[in-house]
Amino acid sequence: MANFFDQLGDILFLDIETASLTENFEDLDPRLRDEWIKKEKLIQTDHGKIEPGSLYFDKAGIHAEFGQVICVGVGYFQRKKKDKKLIFRSKVFADPDERELLLSLNSLLGKKKWILCAHNGKEFDFPYLCRRMLVQGVPLPEPLQIAGKKPWEVRHLDTLELWKFGDYKHYTRLELLAAVFGIPTSKEDLDGSQVNTTFHLEKDINRIKVYCRKDVEVTARVYLAMHPQLDEMELEMVHLEDSPKDHKD
What we know:
Layout: H1 2-8, E1 11-20, H2 30-43, H3 56-59, E2 67-80, E3 85-94, H4 98-109, E4 115-118, H5 125-135, E5 156-158, H6 159-164, H7 174-181, H8 195-200, H9 205-225, E6 234-239
Parallel strand pairs: 1-4, 3-6, 4-5
Antiparallel strand pairs: 1-2, 2-3
Helix pairs in contact: 7-9
């Protein structure tokens, strides 16, 4: 088990929250508006005629070309051998300037050879961060540089992929895994479908930050639950001070 604990301290658990670039479709750059209308035709589920831009507010945030990162939650484990205790230290980066937020994250990711772990991270969080960093002129930190690397050289873990065990048929929500393992939910006050409204209309970034932090904690707990051979250890959650450049109402 020594190897497991040695690696555990190198894993940075991560979750991002995203929103549409603008509150209103009409405020989007004209070239991006034209491209969104093309994208909209591909993603609409109702094959009837829809008003151009009508899906923008609800759907744009999940597409990096039309969305933005509004906060990033991170966390890592520290082990206290004598006390048989694991301490999970978490923090949320938030900034009204997306570039500044991504620069802060870039600095953290460059501090050590992290192994990144997120739920559905390989399909969403990691590529989204890469795309938004490039759009904002932020160099990709080493853990996100995967071009030219062999699969086993990429230090990315994904709890969704781990749960599949080679099964490609199904997507399993983080909330379902939390329920299966008896882990407290992160959806008590908010869920992903409400983030854009909470950010743009309610202007309540603090509520989103709490939700983001809880998602990171749930992901970390799910990862531990996937290693049931561990001896019983006390788990303590410690929230580090948030980034000082938080969004102000």
